[in-house]
Predict the structure.
Amino acid sequence: MESSFLGINTVNFITSFLLATAVFLFMFMMGALMSWSERKQSAVLQDRIGANRASIPLPGGKKLALWGFINNLADAIKTLVKEDFKPRAYDFLMYNLAIFFAFVPATITAAVVPFAGVLKPAEFFQAWYLKWIPWLPEFFTNNLPDFSFRVQVADLNVGLLFIFAISGLNIFGAILAGWSSNNKFSMMGGMRGASQMISYEISMGISLLGLIFIYQQVDIWELVQAQRELAWGWLPKWGIFLQPFAFFLFLFAAIAENKRMPFDLPEAESEIISGYFTEYSGFKMLLFMFAEFITIAFVAVIVSTLFFGGYSVPYLMADGFHWPWGGFTQLSHATVVIMEILSFTLKVFFFCWLLQQMRWSLPRFRYDQLMKLGWKILLPLSILNLIVTIVIVALGGF
Amino acid sequence: MTDQYLPILIIIIVATATAGLILVLNALLGPKAKHRQDFPSKFTPFECGSDLLQDNQKRISIRFYLLALLFVLFDLEGILLYPWAVVGRTLGTIAYIEIFIFLFLLLVALFWAYRRKALDWR
């Protein structure tokens, strides 16, 4: 196992490849799941039944509808066989590039987020409920007894800055799509989108500074590690307890940054049709929708990572639960890792649900109100939050 | 260095390939586009059903020009604050005093922009 590829250990390469694909699929599936729950949750909120007609006929006269999930599958197939429509006098390069600028940054930002702690395959497959897997347990115990990796695609020391840099590329998606499709509504949508995104990006960045100042880190892995510590022996040092105010500032700024419902001026249907993707049809339009849902899922990911301890379960260490009252429950390595992945996924699901609940409960802002909220309220408040944090730290808090 | 950033490259390739594959499949599977001259109105930009008066390729007034300038300024200040926030606690009292002066200037600048109505959406 000493072979290498491009100067990188083969095992590491395969691990990164598998992890990258898994994280991409996770975000992609979150997009699919969100587009389903968006329909179903809005239906529940508005006292309707929602999508339930599309179904797969089963033998015996029954139909598999999966609570409307098959509708999404039908939508995907339908949009895939639509005509590849191109508007008149559009700009070929920019028109197609915009799709990639919207979709790719949305899916790759999750690359620096840890989905669980350290995974040791040789030990992982020893759990009694994983023994049935044919040859993997023997393979790892015989060939790679000491091999372990972090369940995180890339452990960058610039973590958070990477996220800001990549998610900033979304702006290009909106403005290129708006400009290149030769439509006034698209143009207006792109302009609105760009001005809204740049306005809220500042508050988003500055609201997190207090948290970074406390933990002295921008590396996401280390940020999660810092949140696993306990204050006074029982309270996990989650970001929400140290920076409760920053949580709300960041959440609102992030929703606005991603053009979500109370702030969805760039694609306000009753005003400017569909905003910057008016002239896109078929799966191109669906990719824009997907990118939007994935960015929402990513807001949930980043909020649960920075403010709710990421994958960490309170009191759960690498070998089991260390209860604050002194007890100890031993758990196998596989159980711990699976619990961490589950806890992360549950937190993400909770915030996805919360963001959708907000979307269907709140009316849309007016454009000047949107700008006012971003520049005159959120930005001064996030600077004040930073100042108060610095004062508390300087006086010996935390 | 390569070790750290290679996974990012992999995930970029995976995401780009997926999007590209979907677009190519859409172009291949869908019905072929008819000749444009036969269906002139189909290819005009969407205008709520009314005829197009003028094309879009002309200059428009970008209202958020001032906001974009302010964004550059404040974003640069945000970037300057990030390294300070990481090492700030280890630098001692002088760093605290300096950052307070900096943040004070930032707030004054914001307040000034507010008073000059640069933040208003007119």
